[in-house]
Amino acid sequence: MVGLGLREELEQRGISRRDFLGFCASMASILGLPGATAAIAEAVEKEPRPILVWLEFQDCAGNTESFLRASHPTVADLILDTISLNYHKTLMAAVGSQLDQTVKDNKGKYIALVEGSVPTGADGAYCTIGGRSALDIAREVCSGAAATIAVGTCAAFGGIPAAGPNPTGALSVADAVPGVQNLINMSACPANAENITALMPLFSANQAPLRTVVALVDPVIDLITGETAAIQGTGVELKSLTRSELFAGAWQGDGLHILTPGEFDPDEGLLPVLTPTRSADPPILAAELIALPLRGLRLAVLSATGEP
Ligand code: SF4
């Protein structure tokens, strides 16, 4: 298989181009990105394939079991089979040095996938691997990753191990590694190959950083939440746009940020209060948001908070 592109590898395994595009269409649906099938296909096929480092700490190994199911493999299984799974703690416990090497050689390029909560009690003695505590490993590996996926309820929120009285001091990844970059909590257990695969295009190792985000915001709510200030604080340029530009797709940016007052109501005229749509623009209904042209976006934030 060495030297073959993903497309050739799938064809050798009996997956036609048509099957592959069908799979990408369902990925677009899972991600809520209508019209993004071609972009997902391009991202999935892109070389080099993402390097995945899979850590397992305090949990039931149900997500690993799910990942490893061998019968009737789907397109997603095969795609995951072709990513570079450099280290899986449960499957490769005897080759821990490979973890060290991967982390060292690919700083900022690999994806860390964490399964299980991180015990912090008794100086981390409740879970040690190769003489190192789970906390120590999680902090090193997740801090050096391009992105971290917390798979399963235990990794995402602490899960059963963190239930009171929580004797091991179990924490979620977010709490155990404060400030971890690009964290995605995928809490549904057990994870399936489709959901994990759907995230891969978002984490291409070659992806450039976010540069511009276009925004429609309620200025009063923004003053309270500070969302656009937080976006600008990362060095990202924030542009505004009008309703007609929004639906015509006549805007360019790496992301779209919509901040509205109150809670989402499909029948509510959502955006008459948003700048710069105040003027003569007709209101935008929440139900219309599904028609937004989001193709190529790397960040879409639709949030509704508080009262105007
Ligand atoms: S919550 Fe999920 S990860 Fe945690 S033990 Fe249960 S199945 Fe495993």
What distance lies between the first and last C-alpha atoms, to the nearest angstrom? 58 Å
Structure classification: alpha/beta
How many individual domains?
A: 2
Secondary-structure element series: HHHEHHEHEEEEHEHEHEHEHHEHEE
Overall form: globular
Keywords, separated by commas or semicolons:
13 helices, five-stranded parallel β-sheet, 308 residues, alpha/beta, 13 strands, 2 domains, four-stranded parallel β-sheet, binds iron/sulfur cluster
What report would you give on this structure?
The chain has helices at residues 6-12, 17-31, 37-45, 62-67, 75-82, 96-105, 134-143, 152-157, 173-176, 193-199, 219-225, 227-233, 243-248; strands at residues 51-56, 84-88, 111-115, 118-119, 128-129, 132-133, 147-151, 170-171, 183-186, 212-217, 237-240, 255-261, 299-305. The protein has two domains: 48-203, Rossmann fold (3-Layer(aba) Sandwich); 212-305. The protein is built from 13 helices and 13 strands. The chain is globular. A hairpin with a 2-residue loop joins strand 5 (128-129) and strand 6. The protein is an alpha/beta fold and 308 residues long. The relative contact order is 0.12. The termini are far apart. Iron/sulfur cluster is lined by residues 59-60, 62-63, 152-154, 159-160, 189-190. Iron/sulfur cluster (SF4) binds at residues 59-60, 62-63, 152-154, 159-160, 189-190.
